[in-house]
Amino acid sequence: MKSPNYIFYLIIFLIIQSCGTYLVPPGGVDHRSYIGEITPSQRDFEKLPTPKEQVVVGVYKFRDQTGQYKASDMGANWSTAIPQGLTSILIKSLEDSKWFVPIERENIGNLLNERQIIRTTRQEYSGNSNSGQLPPLLFAGILLEGGVVSYDTNILTGGAGARYFGIGGSTEYRQDRITVYLRAVSTSSGKVLKTVYTSKTILSQSINASMFRYIDFERLMEAEVGVTNNEPVQIAVTEAINKAVYLLILEGIKDKAWEAEENDSTKVQELLLEYNNEIIQNNKKVAGKGSWEKGRRSQFSFGVAYTFNTLKSDFKTQSMRPGVKGNFKYIFSDYFNTGFSFGIQQMGSKETFRSTFNTYELDLEYIVMPFNEFSPFFFGGFGLIADTQGPDNLWKGKTQFGGGLEYLVSPTVGLRGTASYHIGFDDDWDQMVSGKRNDHFLQVGLGIQINFGNRFK
């Protein structure tokens, strides 16, 4: 009688064995060393023109100026959040750009000591005092200063998940941000020639799925799988430093601090035009919030949505019924708007009661992140409801509240998902008065919102 259970466990064991390939890290189990990855900003160096003359630069110390330590839930952690080899990363970036000749200044003491040893050795074994002479060291016309000035964690977090009868999954994400400042200083005058700064977000994401089910009275089956992807901080720092060097070169060309070959004049104009367009797009952003241009709504908007409604009334059985809803909104600030909506909703119980209702609603809505393409929102207000097939067909009062998510496909078109709860002031929506609570219903919907009119300035 128990043979089916053994067969079931055998099938699970064979599936796990056959899927063993997927239970190892996505990168495999190869532990050999490899060449470091190329960052996207490093590829920008390939677009640069040839310099008329390479600039000799010195970097004494490119520091971690955040003073932050890694977060830990287990007590004090003295490991720094930022890599400490920032000078090495900057020098590698300067070499890759082909515009600068970096010279050793971070450990200049070691270099001078070694040169002294060479001179002393040559003099002692050659017998000639002049044989110990070495070529002079290069001196820098420009010093590069700056560092990583901030490392902000959890600037944006979120996720989603669902579970049904012990089977479900979830996903979570987190964004950190690192900011780099870089400045060029003239060694002849001490003047700061140019300062640039760049920022890079660091994305961490996890996906999990699990199952928790009782197979029978005494047997429990539990399984889970998941993967987490954390962008390395060192890669993010390298990306930000590469971008800073790239921008420093363009700023120097624009201000004629250094020049490119005359044959590359066309390429220089194209890069400067691309750089100016990037500045224009960047000026449309609000620090830490998103795009000023794309996120700002117009003064008016209208939308339609397809809804599903579950009436919670005096009948024990419940059923989900469809409906349609339209709305018109007046947006009087970036964060707040007021809206009027009209809906036709089917509601009822599974077998006993079914009818069509008209609803009118007036809501005040709050948009949490108005400058982002993706933002949650919350709303609440008052409304009226009437049973079109009821014996009296009278309008009855109610209140509603809810929330949802909006994704702006473009500045004028947005997709919305909503969930709201509607509480009646009466208990006879279903033509029956019973129980302690008034009739109410739950509504979820998916729709489209069109923005039009002037934007806020």
What does this structure look like?
The chain contains seven helices and 17 strands. With 457 residues, the chain is an alpha+beta fold. It folds into two domains: 204 residues, ABC-type transport auxiliary lipoprotein component (Rossmann fold, 3-Layer(aba) Sandwich); 164 residues, Porin (Beta Barrel), CATH 2.40.160.20. The chain has an eight-stranded antiparallel β-barrel. Strand 10 and strand 11 form a beta hairpin. The protein starts with a helix and ends with a strand.
Short description:
The chain is an alpha+beta fold.
Topology, element by element:
Layout: H1 3-18, H2 40-43, E1 55-58, E2 63-64, H3 86-97, E3 100-103, H4 108-126, E4 142-164, E5 167-186, E6 192-214, E7 220-230, H5 233-254, H6 265-282, E8 285-286, E9 290-291, H7 292-295, E10 298-312, E11 320-331, E12 336-348, E13 354-367, E14 374-387, E15 396-410, E16 413-424, E17 440-455
Parallel strand pairs: 1-3, 1-4, 2-4
Antiparallel strand pairs: 4-5, 5-6, 6-7, 8-9, 10-11, 10-17, 11-12, 12-13, 13-14, 14-15, 15-16, 16-17
Helix pairs in contact: 3-5, 5-6
